[in-house]
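Recall that a protein's primary structure is simply its ordered list of amino acids. Everything else, from secondary elements to tertiary packing, is in principle encoded there. The following example makes that idea concrete.
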Amino acid sequence: MKLAAIDIGTNSIHMIIVEAIAQRNFDVIEREKEMVKLGSGVFATHRLSDRAFETGLEVIQRYVQLAEQVGVDEVITAATSAIREAQNGEAFLSQVVRRTGLAPKIISGREEARLIFLAVRNSIAFEDETAVVFDIGGGSTEAVIGDRRDVLFSDSLQLGVLRLLDMFEGKGSVGREGRHVLEAHIEFVAQQTIDQIRSIGFDRVIGTSGTIRTLGEAAYLEAGGKSLQSVNAETVRLKDIKRLTDDLLDTKLVNRAKFEGISDKRADAIHLGGILLVKLLDMVGVNEITLCDASLREGMILDYLERHSQAVPSFPDQINLRYRKAAQLAKKYESDWLKNEHIAEIALQLFDQTQVLHNYSEFERDLLKFSALLHDVGQFISYQKHHKNSRYIINRANPRGFTDEEILLISTLTRYHCKAAPTKKHKRFKKLSKPHRQIIQTLSGLLRVAVSLDKTKNQRVQSVSCQISEHILEIGVLGTGNLDLEIWAAQRDRQVLAKALNREVDIQYFGPSPAA
């Protein structure tokens, strides 16, 4: 099933087209965004301007034509703050109906907040955390608090970058006095909501929407960070956002777009977005924010899939987002998920029992686990170079819930799960930092042994038992049936691990599994 979601926002009109896989799983086929700025002037005049009215209609018509060409089964539409408050908002939607046949739904601020939270929860791995989500739009800011199961509280604040821009005639410098007035206004509007959030309690703050992502990425780059493949799940320090905001306030409109990561179309109001974001983060009392690149339109898709679950195929529902996305990727590329779960279990046993040697923590343990789960997806393209194909697929898929660093390391581990050992002769390996190279050498050594211990693909090896001495790592293998091929293969592929741990590695049959 193909679905399109059109988000008629105050600042931008977005569309995504997806291929639905299951209730909380889909692949994005197309993304479109046009900064129409429907809300420009609306909060001063209470009307959509003639330019915004006509441009908005043209963009939506073009989106519908594209959706039809792609062959979507359903187009979902929603309109937010500018349409809610403009006196001619209903007239605009009537024209949308007349020109396209769509009937967009004007959603409330609280419904917008709920849908945004659905999207964030499907893009950021919450684990057992409670998270606050802020979405700064053109006309409103949505504030939600919840966990991976429930929304605990939500509110929509009449604070958006275009609404704030209407407080300042012209687009020049806000000035010190104007900044104080603006901060006092934000505090007055948001205080009750922030008090409620703080009383509930939370573990982290996540920010979505174009304004927050732009500020986050620009602050990250200005602080010396490298260009990001995806901002999703990346963390930015509040002090860096404060520094960027101060610099933007000291910069004239014509020069704001010279900051890396800030476009011409955001230059008029991005400094106000910075003041708003900094104030909100100060009020909730945090020092950093996690960025998320999913928002309302993804939430609209997820909501539709939940309400029409009978229309999409069944898919195992993993509670953990990262497991779910890895399973989705494995299914798409026809990998044997159950076999790979078994390999991951053996790899993690090796990791845990050799921790005294490598001293790695939960971060590296997760890297090993997911590289084991996805190590052979490249066989979908060809078996001969499947290790390199796996790296390519994981990098290109960019699965949700993982940072750029995690995707880089997981994809590199899959590349080195067999055949050539990691070496500086390989250009991509050489470009890694020294700590990352060490991680790859150690974890790929563990992964190679785990993969080899399922050489016959019969999951005969049930567990391993490691004994460590000054010069030798002895790996005892427990299982059922004849394990000669598994032990032979693991002995053959032990050298990467031996070099990484600075030990001889000896792999021997230890006995039958206790469950045998």
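The longest strand covers residues 13-22. The CA atoms of residues 58 and 96 lie 9 Å apart.
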